[in-house]
Amino acid sequence: MNHPITPIMATPTNSAKILELSHVAPYTDSPDSATEFSLPLTFFDTLWFKFPPVERLFFYSLPETKDSFFNAVLPKLNHSLSLTLRYFLPLAGTLTWPRDSPKPVILYTPGETVSVAIAESDADFDLLAGNHARQAAISGPLVPLLRVSETGASVVALQITVFPNSGFCIGVTTHHAVLDGKSTTMFMKSWAYLCKENPPLLPELIPFYDRSIIKDPSGVDMCCLNQWLGNSETTTSSTIRNNPKLFEFSPILDVPSDLFRATFELSRSDIDKLRQRVLSSWDKSSSSPKPKLHLSSFVLTFAYVLDCILKATDGDETKRKVYTAFTADYRSRLEPPVPGNYFGNCVGGKIIDEELREKLSHLGGEGGEEEEGLTALAEKISGMVKELEKGIDASREAEETLSKLLSIVSEKAYAVGVAGSPRFGVYSIDFGWGRPKKVDIVSAEKTGAISMAESRDGSGGLEVGLALKKHQMDLFASLFLAGLRKF
C-alpha cells in the first residue's frame, strides 16, 4: 500500500471559469412531472435543518478535448440527468414552508429545474484528484452553491467542470435537511446507471417516498426546528415561518484560510494490524470485567485517525476542545424497518460528550502505554456502535443529539465527525467512462469532520480525507505513517 507523503508546498490556483448556467428539468413524458409533488420533513430531516450543505466532488479521468467533451459527453450527462430527475422530483423542487402546511416541506411544482453550471478549468487535474495534500481553497471553484432566500432553499445544485485532455469533475451540493448520504449516493448511482443503460431504472435505485413509515408521536420534528432557531418549545409555527433567516444555514466552524486537504489510505492489512494492537493493549489493561470490543474497520480507522488528529493538534495555540461524533443509518434499525431505498434523512447521531483531550491527557508515553490513547478511543467508539444494537428511540435521540451538537458549537469546540461511509460504494459510480479517480467530500472541513470511503481499488481498505493547517497536516502525516510502519 502506498501511503501519501507529507504536504507539498506549492499549489497552483484553480481558475475555473463558468461557461454557461443551464437548468435541467425532469423528463417530460412522465405523468408525474406534470403534477405537484410534496414531501413533509420528518424529525430525521429537521435534525439537519440549518446544517451547512454537503459538497461532494466526483473526478473522472477522460482525455477528451474540450470540443469532444461538449459534443459527446456533456449532452449524454444532461439527458440522463433529466431521465433521473423524473424519479427524483424533490431534487428539482424547493425546501419551503407553505401557509397551509404545519411544517416545512419539499415542494416540486411543474416547471422547476435543477441548476447545472458548466465550467472549464486549467488547474492540475491530477493534483485535485490525488491524495497528496493541497490547499483546501483550490477546490472551491468546483463547488456549486444552493440558492437560499427568505422563502426557501434549493435542494441540489450541480456543476460539471471539464479539464481539457485530462478529465471532468461533477460537483454536487445537497441540502442536508432533504437527503442524507445514502440518498445522495442513490441519486448519483441512478444518474450513472441511466447514462450507461436504457430505462427503466433498477428497482433498488427507485426512491421510496412514503413518510408515514417514520413515527413521531411527540412532535420532535418541530422541537428540532425550534432548537436550531433558538426558540422556546411554545413558539408557534406561524412565528417560525415568518423568520426572515429561517432558511439560512448556521455556521458550524470557523474555517482557517490556511487549511490543507489530504487523503490517507488504510489497507486491509493495516486495519488487521490495528485490530491486533488494540486487542493486545486491551488484554493488558487492568479494567475488569472487560466487555467485548466491536472492532470493525470503521471503528479502528476512526479511532486511529482521531488519535493522530489529537496528537497533531495538541500544540495548537487555541487549544480548542475536541469531541467526537458519527452518524449511523437507521433504515434497518427502526421498527418496522425502513426500506433501503427510502429517500430523505434516516440517520441518527452518536456523540461522545466527554472532552477528548482531557480524557486522554493522562495517556501515552513510552513502551506499552503508547497504545493506550488508541485503545481508549476504540473502546469509546466501539461502545457507541454497540449501543445501536440495543434498540433505538430515534426521535428522542435526534432531539438529544442536536442539543449536544449546539452546545459543543456554543463553547467554540468542535466534534470530529465522519462524513460519508465505506458502505456507500461511491467508487462504483460509473457514468460510462470508468470509475471515479477520486471522490471528495469537501464540505467536511466546514464542520471539522473527516470523510470516509471504501478504497478505490476494492481491496477492502478504507480512505480518509481531512483538512488541517499546514504544520498540523505535516505532523499528522508523520504520525499516521510512523504508526503503521511500526508493525
Automatic annotation (TrEMBL):
Pfam families: Transferase. Keywords: Acyltransferase, Transferase. Gene3D superfamilies: Chloramphenicol acetyltransferase-like domain. InterPro entries: CAT-like_dom_sf (IPR023213), Plant_metabolite_acyltrans (IPR051504). The keyword Transferase applies. One of its GO terms (molecular function) is acyltransferase activity, transferring groups other than amino-acyl groups. This is Transferase. It comes from Trema orientale.
